Amino acid sequence: MPGCSHDSAPFGSPLCPHLRSGNDWIQTVTWYTGSGMNAELLCFACAEQRERGLPVEVESVCEQCFEYLMDNVCDLERAGGKPEISIREEPFDGTLHEFSLPKELGKVIDIAPVNHSRQSTWLVLSDDGKIFRVNVESGEVVQVALSNVPAEPDARIFHDFPLTRRLHASNSGEFVAVVNDYGRYGQIIDLRTGNVTLSLDGGAYHPNTVPFSFAFADIRGSVVAIHRTRWNRLDLSDPATGKLLSEREQTIQQSEEQQRPEHYLDYFHGALYINANQTRILDDGWIWHPLGVPATWSLEPWFASNVWESEDGPTRRDVCARDYYWDQGMTWLGEHTVVIGGIGKQDWLIVDGARIFDLTRNGEPWARDPDKYFPLEVFQFPGPAGKFFSDGTALFSSSEAGLSRWSVEDGARTGHLDGFRCTHHHRGTSELVELKEGVLVRWQMH
Fold it and tell me: Which end of the chain has fewer surrounding CB within 10 Å, N or C?
C-alpha cells in the first residue's frame, strides 16, 4: 500500500514523508484539515507549509507501521489547522433583557440563582461582603446577610487563576456559601437568620489549582452542603446547623513507604456540578502527574448508607482523563449524561469541542492512562468552547465569541448570539445571565 511496504489496509491519520521515513523522535503537529475531525500528522516544516497555504504530500500507512511511528517517531507537540464546524440555522431568538442593579449595592462580584423560584430571583454578592436578594421582575432588592471570608492575600496563583470570591445558593435560596475559588476558606450562611453556620476550610495542599469544591444539593427532602475538607476529601454537612453528616475516619498516608489506608483517594477534588434531578454529582478534579479526571457518583447512597461513596463507592465512575487539563467547560445533559469540553488527550493537543458520556454504559476506563479507550463516550463534535450549559435537550456554550446553541444529535451549531458571554444559569426561569458592569443581561433558553 502507499506509505509503507505492507499489503494491509490504511490506518490512522495520514503522515508527511519526513515522519514516514523518520527513525528518531520528530516534533509533530496534529493538523486538522477542515473536513470533519479529519487530521494529518505533520513535521514542523510541513505544518509551516500548510499554514502558508502550500500543498504537502501525505500518505497513510498500515496499522503496524502507524503504531511504530507513534511510539518511536512522532513527538506530538501541538495542534494546528481547524476541524470543520457544522452550522445549521434554526429558529433562534436573540432578544436580550437588561436589569440594572441599584448603585447602592456597590461593586458586585458574583451572583447565584434561586432555582426553585419561577421568577428571576438572584442572590448578589458585593465586594464588601454584603449579600442581597434581588427580584428582577418586581425590582425588589433586600440585603439578607453579611459575609466575612478571609481574603488569603498570600495565595499563590496557579496558571492564570487568581483567588476569587464566589457565591453559591441553595435551590430555594435559604442558604448561601461564600468561598474563595483557588483558595482554602469559605463560610455557609443561613439567610433566615443571617448567621454563619459553618466555617469552611478546604485544606492547604494545592488549593490554588481548583475552584473551591462546593455545592448545595436537595437529598431526601433535605438541603445538604457538599464541601472539600482536605484536598482528597469531600464531606456532607447540614447547612442549618453546621453538623457533619459524613463522619468517617481520616485516610492519610504519612509517607511513600506507608501502606495506603483503606478508602484512600488519590484525587484533588475540583469544581462540583449537581444534575437537575439532584441524583448525581460531577467532580472536575485531577490526579498526579497531573491528569484531569472528571468523576461522578450518586448522591442518595452517599447521604443515606455509604459515607465512602465519594472515595470508592460502587456508583463512582471516572469519566475520562486528559493530561494537564481540568477546570474546563462541562455540564449535565440529562440525569445520566454529561458533556465535557475539549477534544484531545493532552492540553497542548486539545481543540475546542464537546464530548458526550453516557454513565449507564458498561465498562470503566482506567483513568490514569489517557490513551486508553473510554467506553462511556458516545459522541464528540468540534466547536463548543468556554462555559457549558444545557436545558436537557441542547448544549449551550459561552465564550469570547458569544453564546452558541448546539445539537447533541449531530453536533451542528443551530444558533449564535454574538457578544453575549453568560456565566450563570437560572433553572427555574430557563435564563442564561451575564453580569456586566452592574447589569444583569438575561437571555431565555426557550
Answer: C
Q: Who's near 433: CB < 8 A, 6+ residues apart?
A: 111, 113, 122, 422, 423, 424, 425, 426, 440, 441, 442, 443
CB 225 within 8 A of CB 197: no
pTM for this predicted structure: 0.94
How many angstroms separate the CA atoms of 68 and 383, rounded?
31
pLDDT at 99: 98
- The span from the CA of 310 to the CA of 297, in Å, is 7
Tell whether the model's pLDDT for residue 368 goes beyond 60.
Answer: no
Secondary element (H or E) of residue 355: strand 351-358
Cα separation, 38 vs 335, whole angstroms:
32
Q: Are 184 and 192 in contact (CB under 8 A)?
A: no
Give the H or E element holding residue 309: helix 309-312
Please report which helix (H) or strand (E) contains residue 303, including its range.
Answer: helix 299-304
Q: Residue 275 pLDDT more than 60?
A: yes
What share of the chain in percent tops pLDDT 90? 87
Pair type for strands 26-32 and 10-15: unpaired
On whether the CB atoms of residues 127 and 106 are closer than 8 A, the answer is: yes
**Strand-strand pairing, 175-181 and 439-444:** unpaired
Q: What are the grid coordinates assigned to 363, written together?
A: 465498562
Cβ contact 158:208 at 8 Å: yes
**Around Cβ 193, how many Cβ atoms within 10 Å?**
11
pLDDT-derived band at 1 (thresholds 50, 70, 90) equals very low
58 CB-near residues (< 8 Å, 6+ apart): 14, 15, 16, 40, 42
DSSP string, 87-108: B---------EEEEPPGGG-SE
- pLDDT tens, 171-197? 999 999 999 999 999 999 999 999 999
User: Which of 39-43, 48-52, 261-265 is predicted with the least confidence, judged by mean pLDDT?
Assistant: 261-265
HEC profile for 21-80? CCCCCEEEEEEECCCCCCEEEEEHHHHHHHHCCCCCCCEEEEHHHHHHHHHHCEEEEEEE
Q: Where are the beta strands (DSSP E) in 384-438?
A: 387-390, 395-399, 402-406, 413-417, 424-426, 431-436
SS3 432: strand
Which pLDDT belongs to residue 370?
55
Return the C-alpha cell found at 13. Answer: 491519520
